[in-house]
Amino acid sequence: MTAIQTRRRSSGPASSANRIWDAGPLTKVTLAFALVLSAFPIYYMFIMATRTNDEALDTPPPLLPGGHLGENVERLLATEDAYFATGLINSIIISTTVTLSVVIISTLAGFAFAKLRFRGSKILLGSILLTMMVPLQQMGIVPLYEMMVNLGWTGQIQAVILPFLVNGFGVFMMTQYTTQAVPDELVEAARVDGASTMRIYANVILPAVRPGMAVLALLTFMQNWNEFLWPSIVLNPDNPVVQTSIAALNQAHGTDYVMLFTGTAASVLPLVIVFVMFGRQIVGGLMEGAVKA
Amino acid sequence: MTLNVDTPAPARREGPRRSSGPRNPGRGGRGLARFDLRATPYFLVSPYFLLFAVFGLFPLGYTAWVSLHDWELAGDKTFTGLDNYTELIADGAFWNAVLNTVGIFVIATIPQLVLALMLANALNKRIRGRLFFRLGILLPLVTSVVAVAVVFTQLYGRDYGMINWFLSLFGVEAIEWQNQSWSAWIAIATMIDWRWTGYNAIILLAAMQTIPKDLYEAASLDGASARRQFWQITVPMLRPTLIFVVFVSTIGGLTLFAEPVMFEGNPTMAGGATGQYQTVAMFIVKEAFRDFDMGYASAAAWLLFALILIGILINYSFTRRIGGKK
Amino acid sequence: MLNTKRQGKLAAVAVMAATALAITSCGSSEPTPAAGGDGASSAAAAPVTITVHTFGGGENFGYDEAVKKWNAEHPNIQVKYQNLTDRFEDVFLPQLLQKLQAGSGAADIVGIDEGAMGLMKARPQFFADLGQFGLENRKADFPAAKWENGVNKDGKLFALGTDIGGMTMCYRKDLFEKAGLPTEREEVGKLWPDWAAFMEAGKKFQAANPGKGDPKFLDGPNTLYNVVLSQEGPKNGNIAYFDTNNQLVIDKNPAVKTAFDTVKSFSEAGLTAKLASFTPEWNAAIKKGGFATMGCPAWMLGVVSGAAGDENKGKWDVASVPGGAGNWGGSYLAIPAQSKHQKEAAEVLNYLTGKEGHIAAFKEAAAFPSSLPAQQDPAVADLKNEFFNDAPTGQIFGASVKDLLPLFLGEKHAQVKTAAEKVLEGMDKGSIPYAEAWTKFVEAGTKAAG
């Protein structure tokens, strides 16, 4: 199977013998349609952010940008009680911290599970797989809340950081990735040269699993950027994360549609920009990660 | 970096796929090296297990303990045995939430998988601007859950929403999407699908590209149609990836929370006047943080866990059967 | 800290608990890192920030101007006023209770609707005793019933009144004109002396608006229901869902049944826009003219003007309500016991519930003052509401609250209200058949009462 694969890779995405690899008109229409559907809600979000509240309720709804973006942004930032800027900053801090932690811890554990032999490793890895099925958000809600109350951490962002510092999916993914990305021979060769385990980790493993780490980082960052349930319970309205801040806007200023949409657009803008800038790498990494993991 | 290891392509893998470590560990005789070999692995995995013990295992056990009590946040805690569970099993509201959760999951996941397969198949063809298309369908993933819900809730608005306006062009009366289960389920399912279909398509596409083309060529020579090739070759070969995708969707789907909460507009956790779209996660939060019945909420959380296990088992056995005749 | 008895038990139950508890104990002995929080826990150095959390749609408590003025005059006590949500019973109240129970996270001053005062009176541990800050001397400022509601079961003063509801009927002048109904507020009031006449007017309005996209006569079930309940309650022992012994009487109080039946009849006649109040769609319909009338306590005027926006100035007007006087709503301010700046908070509370604060709130959000000096002040009595076609709201509400007797609301009033009104919404929207609605209504209320 490996041999076949190699040949396919070398012979390009398709061999001319089989016409089914040519995109027919149906394929093109499907893809164009999917593209429009994918882009439309985001487009609509930005359109609404440039309109007035009256226009927002028109039927049919406006489909072209208006000229009110500036005033909507001003109003959003002037709406102190949504703490939108605080929410953005908190989310960046939380997502970055958690991402760093998950990536580092997962890479370490992934290395051990993939390339080292130790007693109980199978059981430990199996237990991680099991824990992936535990709905921690729901099952942890009561005890974690009591824990944060007792620590006096409710309303503070470490309450949102701590429970997410590890993630079974990350370990599982890095184990799979490391298994396939690093040939055992390299590890053995380094051993023979007298390298310690940590040196092997630093010199052999880390350089090889970087693409996997990038994918894991992206997924973890997004997951934490989107965290909603737990922050909405443990944080207070004056120190929100970006998602709860939008929810607060939606609640307290639900009639100001265009301001709400301006906030929503602002909350997705950073990720969309990163995505457009590194799109090629992200798609490449996701696909590679998917095959290896 | 002394050892120059470039990003390995799958072809570089020569050895057996499953290998749990070097064949010849610990040739060095010195104590330090032996200690390194023996102890370092545990040191490497320990951060995960320590943190998980505190923020994963402990809450699990504690939730089980709480679920055996009539437990108030700052008030009395009375041991009640399995009362919460027996009460839950007889609680229509809980089963309503289960039904909603499963209903939304089913009508979200099945079309999503089919669409993702179709999209992956389309993206696997020779077409100009491949990267552009891939980026395009992946774009929804990088938006945020709450943002998606805000936009879609607006689009689904009864009086001023774009979807009802569009339907009205065909003479359909304005639908209040929140009002019945079926419409609310559809609305919420579209939010989920919009965000995840592209991602799953990319994952499936990656797997599709590892399928040897020779298989297709042989089939073509035998005169199999493209459609037949898709169902007889592509889908069966994607099985492991499909299992993975379904596994992840099951967990995500059964713990659904943000979309229905935002769809309601106000975080009452009720999911509509008669709980038309209250999910189990909302039920748990409502019991714990709206009605302050922590014990009841904890019992519901454990039943949710059971539900997820059952869901995964069912999906696994179902997905395993895909292309089983191959 | 988790209490020790529980710790012992826990350790026996699960081994892993030990790890966690060890960590919890470590944590409590360390200073709490101050990541992010900019709330009341900041150092004692001046200036002190007092946070005020309220609820309500539109202009809600109407404290923007009052707070601005206070902050300008008190550089050492800066007030931060934040309206959290439109909804009291099912969002603001549980979130407040969560924070009161947790012992942190509540604002220095919190708004409480009358519907939850029974609950709060029974929980003296949650709130600061305002008597220690000398606020007992405000007793003469308030009607007896409003004052008594702010005294907890231990006899301590814990909350002071803000506004009082009263009752009128808001209507869309432009829609009335189009439907051929009178538009001047006196004539409109004469049009509907009672609910039967209101129904007739509604049918006339709807006949002129037969189309699918046309406006409806009424918004939905909630407002109408609360108006009728507030009128019928005083005729039936001055209670709503609970009798004065806190026993649930949802199925026995004729006032509840009358209110329910009234809503049902209007809904069945197709006169409602099927909108639940305090939802985005409801707000949008206020703005866009999706319905023509709505029961309006004083504070509701602020909700309407806030939701409709300045561009709709003059389209809404206010007339007398069918069926006579009643009181729906009206709120209180209290200081949670967890507040670190109770003394300063008490000064702010005294200001906001004083004559000046009440008058400012009335100007801004039409919240009619519960304090007697404010009511008698010409600034209130002579005030005309610009948004509502210069309606003399001071006069209108002053008259409507005169002989007002607030209902007794039991400890779980808010919970029962929420659950029961959900059934009304379901009935109006068609997800609960009319024939089953009353049974479901009683069931839901009973379940919520626990």
TrEMBL record, chain A:
InterPro entries: MetI-like, MetI-like_sf. Keywords: Cell membrane, Membrane, Transmembrane, Transmembrane helix, Transport. SUPFAM superfamilies: MetI-like. The keyword Coiled coil does not apply. The chain crosses the membrane at residues 29-47, 82-111, 123-145, 157-179, 200-222, 257-278. Residues 88-278 form the ABC transmembrane type-1 domain. It is a multi-pass membrane protein. This is Sugar ABC transporter permease.
Automatic annotation (TrEMBL), chain B:
This is ABC transporter permease. It is a multi-pass membrane protein. It is found in: Cell membrane. PROSITE patterns: ABC_TM1. Residues 1-29 are annotated as: Disordered. GO terms for biological process: transmembrane transport. The chain crosses the membrane at residues 42-65, 93-119, 131-156, 182-207, 237-258, 299-318. Coiled coil: none annotated. InterPro entries: ABC_transporter_permease (IPR051393), MetI-like (IPR000515), MetI-like_sf (IPR035906). Residues 98-315 form the ABC transmembrane type-1 domain. One of its GO terms (cellular component) is plasma membrane. It comes from Planomonospora sphaerica. Belongs to the binding-protein-dependent transport system permease family. Keywords: Cell membrane, Membrane, Transmembrane, Transmembrane helix, Transport. The lineage of its organism: Bacteria, Bacillati, Actinomycetota, Actinomycetes, Streptosporangiales.
